[in-house]
Amino acid sequence: MNIFDMKSEAPVAPVASTDVLVVGAGIIGLAHAALAQQAGLSVTVIERDHRAVGASIRNFGHACITAQHGDLYDMAQVARRHWLDFAAKAGFWAIESGALVVAATETEFQLLREFSASRPEGQVLVLGAEEVSAKLGRENAAGIRGGAFLADDLRVDPRTTVGTLATWLNGQEGAAVHFNTTAQSFGDGTERKARIETSRGAFEADHVFICVGHDVDHLFPAIAAEHRIIRCALQMAAAHAPDSTTIIPAVLTATSMLRYDAFTHMPSAKELRAEVETNRPELLKIDANVMFTQRPNGTLLLGDSHSYDLTQDPFLDESTTGKLLQTAAQVLDVESFTITERWQGIYASSKVAPFLVREVTEAITLVSVTSGIGMTISFGLAEANLAARPAPRQTATTNL
Ligand SMILES: Cc1cc2nc3c(=O)[nH]c(=O)nc-3n(C[C@H](O)[C@H](O)[C@H](O)COP(=O)(O)OP(=O)(O)OC[C@H]3O[C@@H](n4cnc5c(N)ncnc54)[C@H](O)[C@@H]3O)c2cc1C
What we know:
The chain is α+β, with helices and mostly antiparallel strands. The chain folds into 2 domains: about 15-95 and about 155-225 and about 355-400, FAD/NAD(P)-binding domain (3-Layer(bba) Sandwich), CATH 3.50.50.60; about 100-150 and about 230-350, D-Amino Acid Oxidase, subunit A, domain 2 (D-Amino Acid Oxidase, Chain A, domain 2), CATH 3.30.9. It starts with 14 loop residues before the first strand and ends in a 12-residue tail after the last helix. The chain is elongated and about 65 Å long. It has 14 helices and 20 strands. The chain binds flavin-adenine dinucleotide. Flavin-adenine dinucleotide binds near residues 27 and 52.
């Protein structure tokens, strides 16, 4: 097929009107759109690229439910239900895989025992070294002290999920997804609707959700600055699974325990940080979260490091990837991996809060997950935002 012979090249109607308009076909935008459609509203999604290639396809596909803390945990549990529901409806791959946290030292193991004791029975199962090895598909892997199984965690295939969801949504009554359509400005439309100017015509909607991931500053620089949003870049690699092993759960390690709030609230968290500082300072230097998941085709997705800046260089530092791969290889007790791909992922990051939800006007809500848990909370955040959406506005509001 001629690549220019695409439906998305056609101009959109001069002014297309809809109940809800979503900007961005990553998981956050699509979660808002899918739930709005399910609620009986007409929905239009616009996406600047010809297919979504943002954070939502570059990640591990791990709905990291159990390691969330407080309100985020509740939101993640809501998301979990919707993930399973939409996987069944839209036909994307999702699995109640759980997650396995591997402990290599007594301090790591102690923290996991504390975590297990802090949660309802059955949610966090403490495992011995042999059980951990078995879940990794290895026999008596060296260097494992024990571990924990987080039963509620899910996995999806990040490479295919948002594409499948967008295609499914586009086929639903009252829903349309337009690719190759860039939102450029926002303001008031006719009959008290919001109006969006795009590269392919104008749209009007009763309510607009702007879900542009880390590019908040491209559209709303003042809000991005106020919320202190910067870009977090992560280095990732894909590899053949050693001996074609199947590993069902997402696999987390000590550096994961330093990141997720549910772990950092445990009594042994301080001691664990000190231990990693002493034994593996190179991992703290690259702000590592050494973890991996397996795609349905058997490929392992391995990562990740974190570096923070307003604009990110596109270059991957080989020594950073080397440290991540070496640590993951130790967990699986293998010499090395056969790497098939390397890439950089970027997500929005802010120390102010894990996500931003801002009413730009009564009819326009800006949403960005400003931490590395967008897959985990996506549908939960979307459900809350749709519920908080004011009724179609009664009075005109400020032009932007
Ligand atoms: C390497 C990596 C690993 C991660 N691992 C996990 C994980 O395992 N679990 C987890 O919960 N989270 C994880 N995350 C975080 C998660 O991927 C993100 O939080 C989430 O994908 C953000 O979704 P999004 O829809 O906001 O952004 P994106 O997926 O980036 O989508 C935003 C979309 O908006 C579009 N857009 C931007 N500007 C415009 C415009 N003006 N007009 C139209 N469209 C526009 C973009 O083209 C893009 O498609 C990871 C992130 C990375 C990078």
